[in-house]
Each structure stands twice: as structure tokens, then as C-alpha cells.
Design a protein that fits this description.
mainly beta; globular; Jelly Rolls
């Protein structure tokens, strides 16, 4: 039953038919093999005790001279349970008695590719797992290491130790032949499931360009020298005998970036329930001369596979990540079952040979006029009114409340959907119906226009009337978005209904609106309308300020998100963020923390991943010497590279060298005492900064007690309770991690004092901003009244001054969000308010200042002198009924220019209309620059980026955001890898 799969876990229903070949809905247990290439490896030799061999293409394991090999694999999350684990290494020369694999345990993990014999790790004497025995040259050594405890989202280390003086030479992870590199091969078994929040498809704006194969052939193991496949009208694939299909496409003439690419193949007269898989291939070949013996090599992981293929049907394989532009592309199609299959070749008399369908962005040119006039392709999802299906087995039953919509030819089941479409005067480019498949089928449903219907009365006996055929779908795999182009149908505003009629006796289900509404599966049917906006100004200011210097995009297979960025002294910048531990991993699931250092041109200098569970990297800063400081939170006793952190729940600070090595880590925990027991309290990191001497300055929050190194301190609030918020701390560590000083900022107010932002100036004074409750003491005595504040201490922690804007329920609600240190020693700050206040003698009022409650906030940007005197402030009135997220990511450059990023509303910054209306394209990232006197210098609007943030670097400012859809920037389209999330970095001139 389809509803079973919406429940998110467990095996198929008892009695369900098991098909070991496919990942289908009939299957109770999925068995898969996962091959992982070594992330690092090296060997050490007693003959060269001070030499490291981590960059060598081979590794030696011998007793004369004594040599050991160390291998490390990163095991990402897998869908199921690891039942077997095997280490595979390729022997370049043989041995009468091959090596033994050892479990190095904790002590044996202290190595890297620079390790030598003199610095090699220790190993438990009872760590042997399995031995290879005799090994022939040019063969794979496979060692069973299943007895090891292999954790996902973590690194697994294996040591190879010789058993004799007849050593063996093996290929390393640096070997030029990538197919010979070490592998960790896992057998994973799991029950059927669906991701609760599947990634949405990338909406493409143009029809595809179709390329036919320039070469196609098949080769067969039972005729290893035959080249007849190149002349054949059919392409044969299977495992008995082994037959492979090889294809080449010459992609030429594309003028825009690729947004999507699929390999389409047409099936012969026989279908299959064990469809083949597509891989990338490498190596020279020609269809006229290639044979089994000379065929190209399969490379990388499986690109795509659909289990069920219908006779005389077609199948689309997703190859977007391989086809990124013009070029020559080769693919191999490999059997996954004993069920042989025929595809039509380009020489087939019926035509319909292999095709490569490539969708690109709409043609665009970089704007050249003063306001950078451009147009945006705007995607809007129309409202789903209702959906249902009807069943011949239950002819009088309605199904409009169910979480799945079933479509089947036997027994008969038809699906129906209806949308409410509202179009404006802008031209419609495409309209796409997107449905999420819960099962696989060999031939997807036919889509028809339908009459609008009442779901409460729609039954098999009283079905909505279907009229014109609109589209068809080929083979469908489980958890796939099926897309129909309905542009010709949706031409005006109104109600549009569609019917789904089975084109196969192997039915399937689609997720419904109820599946999303009930929290089972966030994959409701979507009707996406793509329109082209009217021309608009995307920039106001004086060029070249605010124009693009360069753009860089990450390309990791799993989703990546940025959390914080910071400038580096050489003009580069650092990023701390997260990466999903599985390609379809959920954003709320355990993530791998990532620290990346970029050079001044945006390229990556190094990238470190930390897969330890229960660790959250929050903030990053870079010292004048190029050391990278990171702060975050943790639970337990994680080891970030320098030993386990103190047990509990707390925060940490970590220092990385300019080359990316962990220099030191410091952990701090909070607690409260109940009777004779100490119980953990959480801690939070708000912000992180550094000074000219490489110190770490951290602000954060905590409950109860903690000890930063200067003795036990009390937060003034014992533990989390109801709506209570924690109080804050300011902590300074010197360059080597030693404690310098700390200050606790506490109040009895329910909200708690919040020190949310910190900056350090050229004199190494520390400036903190946020909200403080009554009783907070910055160093001059307890505050009589609470409010938003900016406070400053000198290098040794002595109080210098504070500024306070009192807040109260009858006057003003406000927050200071960020502070920035200016070259003259002054301070800039951003915030928002609702109510009335006075600054530097001038009154300010929001749109609804006297409503008596915390209503719509309006942003402000202010300046204080180096002594805390009010200097100037800009209020940006929003107007009644407008909600605005505020000025974010405040940063300052060496000239005192300020930069902020906000969500939309660029026209309110003082330079005129910029960007599309919020009703058309809401919350577009809007970057603004202000002079030291707070006058707006320039404003620029971009297409959607999630969580945008800014970093002031030498020669400009870098905008970083999470790229989750195709966007166009100055004539170039950028599309996220694997249809997930990439990071996009855009350097703008100052």
C-alpha cells in the first residue's frame, strides 16, 4: 500500500513480494554495495625513518625493511545496516604471504599523510582482523574487516602489516589509474523508505536541445574481439552473457549554462524488471572498432538507474552532473540483472536512437547600462485546490483525503488534480506539472485535461471527464519528480484540472497535498508557472562599485550551507558551514561541519570536514597571520583533532593553522547542581572576533555555572525554564588558547542579556552589541533600566564605555543586531525597532509607534564615536503593513565603507527603485553599501540565494549564499549540483 511508504521507516508489509533486483515498492529488503575510495593513505618505512610517503602512488607493506600502510575512509550515512565490510587493495607485485589488516583502535588513528616511521601511531597487540595469504601480482587483495565497528558520518582507519619478508606493493589513493585505488566495500541492507523532505526539482525555463548519438555500440563478453555492435540496429545489454552499451554525444552550440540533461533511450519489444544502470566512461573508442577487449572503462559511481522498463517504451536517465556544457560525453549502460534488454540504435530503421536532451538557461547578456537593467524568470507555484483518485475495485468510494494518489491499469485506478492559477500580464515561458512518485513503474501515466471536479463526489462511477491528451511519461523510479509540460494548456487565469490514466499494468502512486498537510511527506503536487518579468533596474549607484569581480560555485554532491564567513589577510576569506552526510540528507539531520579557506580569487586553498556527531560549528574568524579560529557548540566528548573535549554540553574554540591543521581546541561546559549531582546546561556561541595578536574573542550565552579558566562564574540563571532566556558572556583567549579574561553579563529579566555581536578595532578594544536587562553591569555599575546597548572594553578587559537605548513596553521595542569597528575607532551598528526614540538629538518613530505592542519592526543603521557618543543614525521607514527582516551581515572595509545585505525592499535605501516589486519577486538578496557618514553609495539586487551573508575583503566584498535553484548573474546561469544546495560566492567591487 502506498500509505506504508509515507510512514518513513520500516520494511514492506508482511507478505509483500520480494524482488531482489529492483528498488521497488514490492521489495521488502534492499541490498546494495557501497564502494568508498580512500580519503587518505600513506606508508612508513624503517629504512627511511624520517621520510613521509603520503604523496606516493604506491605503498609498501613488508618486514624487510619493515614497512606498514595506513588507510582512512570516510563513511557517509547509508540507508540501512552495514552487514559486511571488505578492504580492497590492488597488488602491483605479489607475495607468498600477503599482509594482515588491523583495527588500529583509537591509538592508531593519530596519523596523516605526513606521518613517518618515527612518528607512526601505536596499535593494540590484539588488533588483527584477517590475512591475505598468497597474493598474485596484478590482482585485488580483499580482506574481510567486518569485525570492525564501522560508524557512518565518521572516518574508518585500517592498518596493513606484513606477515613475512616477502613484501607486497599496492596502489595508493594517488595512483594515476583511479580504478586501482584502495576501496572500502560495504554491503548495506535496508527497508524501503522515502525522504520526508525531498529536494524540489530545478525548474528549467526553456525546451531542451536534442543531440543524437555520434557513436553507439554494444560489446559482449562471449565475443570479446567482435566489433559488430557498431553496425547493429539494436543495442544489447545484460549479464548473461555480459553485454554493455557504449554511447558518445558531441554537444556543440550551447550558448548558456546547462540546467538539466537526460539520456533518453528507447526500449525494444521486451521490457525488464531489472533495468540497467548508466555510468560515465573514459578511454578512446570508435563504434566501428571497439570490442569487449578494447571497450572504455567505467568510472565513478552509478549515475542513474530505473528498475522497470516497458516494451517499446522509453527511459530518461538523469546525467545533469556529467553534462555541464559543450563537449564530448561518453556513457556506458551496464546490466544489473540476468534479464537481457534491447535498446534501439541510431541505425535502427524505425529511428528513435539514443538522445541527449539538454536544457539551458534562457539566453541572457550581461547588462551594460547604468542601472544594470535586466529581466528575471520568476517561478510561482499555483495553489493546489484538491487531488484524488478513483478505483474500479471500489467504484463508489472517494479517496480525496488520502496521502497518495494511485494510478494503475490493473486494477483500474485514475488520478485527478485541480489547481487555481492566477496569471498577470507578464509573458508565460513554461508551465510544469510536477508529481512525486512513491513507487517505480515501467511506463508512467498519460496526462489528460480534465473538467474541474468536486473531490468529495469523484468516484469510479462518477469520475471527472477527461478530454485532450497533454503528455506522457516514460519509465519512472521511486522517489522521482515526474514532470509534464502543460504550457499549451495553461494560458489564462482560472481553474485547471488534469487526469492521470495508467499506461501500464504496473501501477504507482504520487504524493498528494494531504501527504504534505499531514506532515508525512513534503512533496505535494506542484504546478509551476514560469514567467518573464518586465525589465527592471537591478542596481543603483556609480559603477564600477557593486559590479561583479568574480563568481565561484561549489560542486559537492550533497547539500552544503554556509553559517558564517570572515576575511583573510591575503584578500581571501574563510567559510564555516555544513554539508549533508548523504546526497538526499535532510537539513535537520546530523551534518558534517566544513571549514573552507578561499584565496583572493575565490579558489579553495583547503577544505576540512568534521563529521563528529553532536557538534555545531557556528562562527569563524581569521587572524593577521592567517590562522583560522572557529567557535561552536557540542555535546558529549567529541575529538576535533586534539583530544576529547570536556564531557558535557558546552562550547568550543578551535584554532587551525594557515595550512588547515588543527593547532588547538578548547572546550567549556556549563552545569547546575541538584543535591549532590551536577547536571549539564547548554551553552551557545553568538559571535567570534580576533585582534592583531591572534586572540579569540567569543560572545555567547549560558545557564548555571561555568569555568573559562579564571575560576567558576555564575550566569545568574540556574537552568532553562519555560520562557526564560540565558544570560551572556564575553571571553578572550590569547593566541595559544590560554585564558585572558571573561565577563558575565547577567540580568534577572526573563529575556536575559544577549551579547549577540562582537568586533575588535585596531587598538584591540572589544566592542559588543545586543540587548541588556536591568541589573546588567558592563563595569560601571548595574543598569537601572534595560535596553539595546553597545559596550566597549580595552585589550585587558577594563571597562571603557557603554551606550544604552532604553526600551520599555510603552515607548519602544528594539534590538541591536550587529556591530562593526571602524578605522577611526568608532562603531557602526544595525538594529530594528517599533515605537519612538531619540538619537543624537533627533527623534525617530516607526510606522505604528503607539500601538503598545511589539509590531512590525523597521531597520536602522547608526554610528557612535570612539568614546561612545551618539554621532548619526539612519532610519529606513517601511510603511504600514510591510514586514522587513532588517539589515544583516554588517561589515566594514578599510576605508570605513559599510556593507549590508537584506531581503528585498532595496528601493527603501534612498537611491530609487531597484529590483522587482515584492509582490512579484519577494525577498531577493539586496546588497547595499554606505559611506562612513551613512549615506547610501550603491544598492544591487540579485536572484534568490538562501541565507546571504557578506565579507569585506581586499578590493571588495564577497556575497555568499546557498544556491538552491538556477539563477542568472550577468548573463551566466548557475545551477546547483545534483539538484541540491551549493554555495555561491560573488565578489563585488567596493
Amino acid at each position: 500500500m502506498a500509505l506504508f511508504f509515507l510512514n518513513g521507516c520500516g520494511s514492506a508489509q508482511p507478505g509483500a513480494e520480494v524482488d531482489p533486483e529492483t528498488g521497488s515498492h514490492e521489495q521488502q529488503l534492499v541490498t546494495q554495495t557501497v564502494a568508498i575510495v580512500a580519503a587518505a593513505d600513506t606508508y612508513v618505512s624503517a629504512a627511511s625513518p624520517a621520510t613521509s610517503f603520503g604523496s606516493q602512488p604506491t605503498m609498501e607493506v613488508d618486514r624487510s625493511p619493515e614497512s606498514e600502510a595506513y588507510l582512512r575512509f570516510y563513511v557517509a550515512p547509508v540507508d540501512g545496516t552495514i552487514t559486511t565490510a571488505r578492504l580492497r587493495v590492488y597488488a602491483l607485485d605479489g607475495s607468498a604471504d600477503g599482509p594482515t589488516a588491523h583495527d588500529p583502535r583509537i591509538g592508531g588513528r593519530a596519523w596523516n599523510e605526513l606521518t613517518t616511521w618515527n612518528t607512526r601511531p601505536t596499535r593494540d597487540g590484539f588488533s588483527a582482523l584477517s590475512s591475505a595469504g598468497a597474493v598474485a601480482s596484478g590482482t585485488w587483495i580483499e580482506l574481510d574487516i567486518t569485525e570492525m565497528h564501522i560508524s557512518t558520518s565518521a572516518f574508518t582507519d585500517v592498518h596493513l602489516v606484513a606477515d613475512s619478508t616477502d613484501g607486497v606493493t599496492i596502489a595508493s589513493s594517488e595512483h594515476p589509474n583511479t580504478s586501482l585505488r584502495p576501496q572500502l566495500v560495504l554491503t548495506v541492507q535496508s527497508a524501503d523508505d522515502h525522504p520526508p523532505h525531498p529536494a524540489l526539482p530545478i525548474t528549467v525555463s526553456s525546451p531542451p536541445v536534442v543531440f543524437t548519438a555520434s557513436d553507439d555500440t554494444y560489446v559482449s563478453a562471449d565475443a570479446p574481439t567482435s566489433t559488430e555492435g557498431g553496425f547493429a540496429t539494436d543495442l544489447r545489454v545484460g549479464q548473461s552473457p555480459d553485454r554493455e552499451v557504449h554511447l558518445r554525444f558531441d554537444v556543440l552550440g550551447l550558448t548558456e549554462s546547462v540546467q538539466r540533461a537526460v539520456l533518453r533511450m528507447y526500449v525494444g519489444l521486451d521490457g525488464t524488471a531489472g533495468g540497467p544502470a548508466v555510468y560515465a566512461t573514459q578511454g578512446p573508442w570508435s563504434e566501428m572498432s571497439v570490442s569487449w577487449n578494447t571497450r572504455p572503462t567505467k568510472v565513478g559511481a552509478e549515475v542513474d538507474r530505473l528498475p522497470y522498463l516497458a516494451p517499446s517504451g522509453y527511459v530518461d536517465y538523469e546525467v545533469t552532473d556529467l553534462v555541464r556544457g559543450n563537449g564530448n560525453f561518453t556513457f556506458g549502460v551496464y546490466g544489473t540483472s540476468g534479464d537481457a534488454l534491447i535498446f534501439r540504435a541510431k541505425e535502427n530503421w524505425e529511428g528513435a536512437g539514443p538522445q541527449l536532451l539538454v536544457w539551458t538557461g534562457a539566453p541572457r547578456a550581461a547588462p551594460t547600462d547604468a542601472c544594470m537593467t535586466r529581466q528575471e524568470l520568476v517561478s510561482k507555484v499555483s495553489e493546489l485546490r484538491h487531488d484524488t483518485y478513483v478505483s474500479a475495485e471500489r467504484p463508489t468510494t472517494t479517496f480525496h483525503r488520502e496521502a497518495s494518489m494511485r494510478v494503475d491499469g490493473s486494477p483500474g485506478m485514475n488520478g485527478f488534480l485541480e489547481f487555481d492559477v492566477q496569471l498577470d500580464a507578464t509573458p508565460v515561458r513554461r508551465v510544469l506539472l510536477q508529481l512525486y512518485a512513491l513507487e517505480a513503474t515501467d511506463n508512467g501515466p498519460l496526462l489528460y485535461k480534465s473538467q474541474p471536479f468536486d473531490p468529495a463526489t469523484a468516484t469510479w462511477q462518477n469520475p471527472p471527464a477527461m478530454t485532450d491528451l497533454v503528455g506522457d511519461a516514460g519509465a519512472v523510479k521511486k522517489d522521482q519528480w515526474v514532470e509534464y509540460d502543460v504550457t499549451s494548456v495553461v494560458t489564462a487565469s482560472g481553474r485547471y484540472a488534469f487526469g492521470l490514466l495508467a499506461d501500464s499494468s504496473k501501477g504507482l502512486s504520487f504524493a498528494t497535498g494531504d501527504a504534505s498537510a499531514k506532515g508525512l511527506l513534503d512533496a505535494a503536487p506542484r504546478l509551476v508557472v514560469v514567467t518573464e518579468s518586465a525589465p527592471f533596474c537591478s542596481y543603483r549607484g556609480t559603477r564600477p562599485s557593486g559590479t561583479t569581480a568574480w563568481v565561484k560555485q561549489t560542486n559537492n554532491a550533497s547539500a552544503e550551507r554556509a553559517r558564517d564567513t570572515a576575511p583573510a589577510p591575503d584578500g581571501g576569506f574563510a567559510v564555516v558551514g555544513t554539508q549533508a552526510q548523504a546526497r538526499d540528507g535532510e537539513y535537520w539531520a546530523e551534518q558534517t561541519d566544513v571549514v573552507t579557506l578561499h584565496r583572493a580569487d575565490g579558489s579553495v586553498a583547503w577544505r576540512l570536514t568534521f563529521a563528529q556527531p553532536d557538534v555545531e560549528f557556528r562562527k569563524v574568524t581569521v587572524t593577521a597571520l592567517g590562522n583560522v579560529l572557529v567557535a561552536g557548540e557540542y555535546r558529549g566528548t567529541p575529538d576535533l583533532g586534539k583530544g576529547a573535549l570536556p564531557r558535557g554540553t558546552g562550547m568550543f574554540v578551535m584554532k587551525l593553522t594557515p595550512s588547515g591543521a588543527v593547532d588547538w581546541t578548547r572546550g567549556y561546559t556549563a552545569w547546575f547542581r541538584m543535591d549532590d549531582e551536577l547536571l549539564d546546561n547548554p551553552m551557545f556561541v553568538h559571535d567570534l572576533a580576533t585582534d592583531a595578536h591572534g586572540s579569540a574573542v567569543v560572545t555567547g550565552g549560558f545557564w548555571g555555572k561555568t569555568d573559562f579558566g579564571g575560576g567558576e562564574v555564575d550566569a545568574g540563571k540556574p537552568f532553562p525554564y519555560d520562557d526564560e532566556y540565558p544570560n551572556s558572556f564575553v571571553l578572550k583567549l590569547q593566541w595559544d588558547g590560554a585564558y585572558q579574561w571573561a565577563r558575565v553579563l547577567k540580568t534577572n529579566a526573563m529575556r536575559g542579556t544577549q551579547a549577540v555581536s562582537v568586533a575588535v578595532d585596531a587598538q584591540e578594544n572589544i566592542t559588543v552589541g545586543g540587548w541588556a536587562g536591568p541589573g546588567t553591569d558592563f563595569g560601571a555599575g548595574a543598569l537601572a533600566q534595560g535596553g539595546v546597548f553597545v559596550a566597549r572594553w580595552n585589550v585587558t578587559g577594563d571597562y571603557l564605555w557603554h551606550w544604552l537605548l532604553p526600551t520599555s513596553y510603552d515607548t519602544v521595542f528594539a534590538d541591536v543586531r550587529q556591530v562593526a569597528a571602524l578605522p577611526d575607532g568608532g562603531v557602526a551598528f544595525t538594529g530594528d525597532f517599533d515605537g519612538r526614540f531619540t538619537f543624537a538629538g533627533s527623534p525617530y518613530a516607526s510606522a505604528e509607534p503607539d500601538d503598545g505592542y511589539d509590531g512590525p519592526r523597521e531597520p536602522f543603521l547608526g554610528r557612535l564615536t570612539s568614546t561612545g557618543t551618539e554621532l548619526t543614525l539612519r532610519h529606513f521607514p517601511m510603511g504600514t503593513g510591510i514586514y522587513f527582516s532588517g539589515l544583516n551581515s554588517l561589515t566594514a572595509d578599510a576605508n570605513g565603507n559599510l556593507f549590508t545585505v537584506q531581503s528585498g525592499h532595496g528601493g527603501l535605501l534612498g537611491l530609487g527603485t531597484v529590483g522587482l516589486p515584492e509582490t512579484v519577486a519577494p525577498e531577493r538578496p539586496t546588497v547595499a553599501s554606505f559611506s562612513s557618514t551613512l549615506q547610501t553609495r550603491w544598492v544591487r539586487v540579485f536572484e534568490p540565494l538562501q541565507s546571504p551573508r557578506l565579507t569585506a575583503v581586499t578590493g571588495g566584498v564577497v556575497l555568499t549564499g546557498d544556491l538552491g535553484r538556477s539563477i542568472e548573474l550577468e548573463g551566466t546561469w548557475y545551477t546547483p549540483t545534483s539538484r541540491r544546495l551549493d554555495l555561491l560566492h560573488v565578489k563585488l567591487r567596493p
